[in-house]
Amino acid sequence: MTYPFSALVGHDQLRLALVLCAIRPDIGGVLIRGEKGTAKSTAVRGLASVLEAIGDGRLVELPIGATEDRVVGSLDLQKVLRDGEHAFSPGLLARAHNGVLYVDEVNLLHDHLVDVLLDAAAMGRVHVERDGVSHSHDARFVLIGTMNPEEGELRPQLLDRFGLTVDVRASRDVDVRVEVIRQRMAFEADPDAFAGRYADADAELARRIADARASVDSVVLPDKELRRIAALCAAFDVDGMRADLVVARTAVAHAAWRGADTVGEEDVRIAAELALPHRRRRDPFDDPGLDPGQLDDAMNEAGEAADEDPEPEPDPDPPGGGPSSSTDGDAEDAAPQSDSGSGSRTSAPPSATFRTRSLVVPGVGEGAPGRRSRARNRTGKTISAASDDGYGVHVFGTLLAAVERQRGPGIPRPQPGDVRRAIREGREGNLVIFVVDASGSMAARDRMSAVSGATLSLLRDAYQRRDKVAVITFRRQDAELLLPPTSSVHIASRRLARFATGGKTPLAQGLLAARDVVVREKARDRARRALVVVLTDGRATGGPDPLGRTRAAAARLVAEGAAAVVVDCETSYVRLGLAEELARQLGAPAVRLAQLRADSLTDVVRTAA
C-alpha cells in the first residue's frame, strides 16, 4: 500500500513542483535534494499513485548500477543468435513512457546515463545508435531524481538540465514533527483504512491534474510576462536560454493548475522560485538556493522592464557591468584572526583558488567512472574484444568469431560461444585524501592562507574529476579526520574555511590517519584507488624520535598500496628539504606549493609507477 500523496505533511513546494511536472512533463523533471528521512521517495510514489487514476501512473525505478543497455535498450542478442533477426530490445526508458521515471540517489548515477535521461526527458524520444542498431521511440515521462547533497553533488552542467529543483528538510517546528509522527504511525497501523481517508483528496487531485493538462496548451503567455521572464533570468545572470524556457513552461503550467487562462505575475514568481536557484551556482563551493529578498528586488526590476516598450537599438553597456560586479579581493578583505593565545588559533582565510596540476594514480584501475586515472570500465572507449570479460557486445568481434568457426560459404550465424565482449578503457574517480599540516611550523598567516587556498583548489579539481575526498589535519599530538570520505566538496570546503592551527608537528600521526582511511575504504570499495596528497614543510616534532616514527608511518602507508604526492610548503630562504625526503620515503613526487598551479608548468605530475 502506497502512502497517500495528499497525506504528506508540509513540503508544499515539493508537492507543487511534482504536480507542475505532471501537468507539463517537458518542464524537464524535478530534482529533490534533501537530508535522509525527509519523505522524498514517499512523495514520488504517492504522485505515481495519483496519476494511476488518469491512466499513466506507471512508476519505473532506475537502479544506480544500471547499464546503458538496460536504460536505452540494445540489440536483442537472443533473436540475433536464434533467428538471425536484427531486432531491438527496449530499455527502461521505453517502459517509462507515459509514466514516472524515478532515479533515487541520482547524484551517484554515472554522468553519461544522467545525460541520456535528461535528453530523453527534454525531447520526449529516445534515439539509439549502437551495436549496429538504429532505433527511435517515444519516451514521454515525468523525470524525478532524489539525492542527499552530503553524499555528493551533481555537476553544474547536469544540475542545469533538470527543469526544477526543490530543497527539502525536516521541519524544526515541534507541532509539525508531531503531526508527521502521528500520520506515519496511523498509516503503519492500518494502511488500507488510512489510505481510504485520503482517497477522495487524491481523486480530486488527479481530476485537477487532468483538467490542467487539458487546458495547458490554451493558456496565453502575454508579451509582458514573457519580457518579465527574460528580464528576471538576465538579472540572475544564468547561462544560456534553458532557464528562460523552463520558467516560461512552468509559469504556463502553474496558470493551468490554478484554472487561469492567462499567465500572471504570481505564476512567473513561483516558476522562478523552482527553476532558478540551482542555475545560479557557478562553483561547487557556492551555496544553493535563492534569497527571497533578492528575488523580490529582481521581480520589481523585471516588472519595470516588462512595462517598457521594446527598443530595437541594443544597449552598448552589458547588464550588470561595472565595478560593483567584481569579486576580486574578497579573500584579502576578510578580517584577520588574532594570533594570540596558547599555541592554538584559527587558520587565516584561504587564498584565491586556482586551476591545479593533474595528480594521477599510476596503472589501470577498475573503479567508478570519473576523470582522474586510467581504468577499465563500461564508459570508456572500446579498445579490444574478449570472450569472458568486458561491457556490452562487441558486434564486429562476435561476427569475426562466427566466421572463424564456420569457415565456409554462406552468411555467418553466430552461436552463443561466439559472443565477444567489448574491452573499454576510460577514466575513473579516486579517493583523494588530503593530509594538511596545521602545526606551528606552518602557522604563519600567509603560509596557512596559501596552504588552505591550495587545498581548496585541489578540492575543486577533485570535484571536477568525480573523486571522493577526505581531509585530515595534524597538529599538537594527534591527527584529526576533519572530513570522512565523501563526494561533497561543498561540505569539505566549509570544513576547511576555518580550522585550528598551531602546536607541534605530529607528521607520523597524519600519515597513520591516512593509512587508516585507506584501509577502511578498501573494505567498502576495493575498486576505488587512493591518492594521498600531503601538504607539509616536512618537519616532524613532538615525542621521542619523530623522524623515525615518520619513516615507519610512511612505510605502513606505502604497504597499503596508496599512491601519494607531497606538496612541499617550505618557504624559508635556506631550504631543509624535509618534504622532499618524505616524498622519497613514500615513493612519491614532490611538488613545491608555488608550482602547484597548472599554468606554471607544461608537464603534469604523475606518481611513480
UniProtKB/TrEMBL annotation:
<protein>
    <recommendedName>
        <fullName>VWFA domain-containing protein</fullName>
    </recommendedName>
</protein>
<dbReference type="InterPro" id="IPR002035">
    <property type="entry name" value="VWF_A"/>
</dbReference>
<comment type="similarity">
    <text>Belongs to the Mg-chelatase subunits D/I family.</text>
</comment>
<feature type="region of interest" description="Disordered">
    <location>
        <begin position="279"/>
        <end position="386"/>
    </location>
</feature>
<dbReference type="InterPro" id="IPR011704">
    <property type="entry name" value="ATPase_dyneun-rel_AAA"/>
</dbReference>
<dbReference type="GO" id="GO:0016887">
    <property type="term" value="F:ATP hydrolysis activity"/>
</dbReference>
<dbReference type="InterPro" id="IPR052989">
    <property type="entry name" value="Mg-chelatase_DI-like"/>
</dbReference>
<dbReference type="InterPro" id="IPR036465">
    <property type="entry name" value="vWFA_dom_sf"/>
</dbReference>
<feature type="compositionally biased region" description="Polar residues">
    <location>
        <begin position="337"/>
        <end position="356"/>
    </location>
</feature>
<dbReference type="Pfam" id="PF17863">
    <property type="entry name" value="AAA_lid_2"/>
</dbReference>
<dbReference type="Pfam" id="PF13519">
    <property type="entry name" value="VWA_2"/>
</dbReference>
<feature type="compositionally biased region" description="Low complexity">
    <location>
        <begin position="290"/>
        <end position="303"/>
    </location>
</feature>
<dbReference type="GO" id="GO:0005524">
    <property type="term" value="F:ATP binding"/>
</dbReference>
<feature type="compositionally biased region" description="Acidic residues">
    <location>
        <begin position="304"/>
        <end position="316"/>
    </location>
</feature>
<dbReference type="InterPro" id="IPR041628">
    <property type="entry name" value="ChlI/MoxR_AAA_lid"/>
</dbReference>
<dbReference type="Pfam" id="PF07728">
    <property type="entry name" value="AAA_5"/>
</dbReference>
<feature type="domain" description="VWFA">
    <location>
        <begin position="431"/>
        <end position="567"/>
    </location>
</feature>
<dbReference type="InterPro" id="IPR041702">
    <property type="entry name" value="BchD/ChlD_VWA"/>
</dbReference>
<dbReference type="InterPro" id="IPR027417">
    <property type="entry name" value="P-loop_NTPase"/>
</dbReference>
<dbReference type="InterPro" id="IPR003593">
    <property type="entry name" value="AAA+_ATPase"/>
</dbReference>
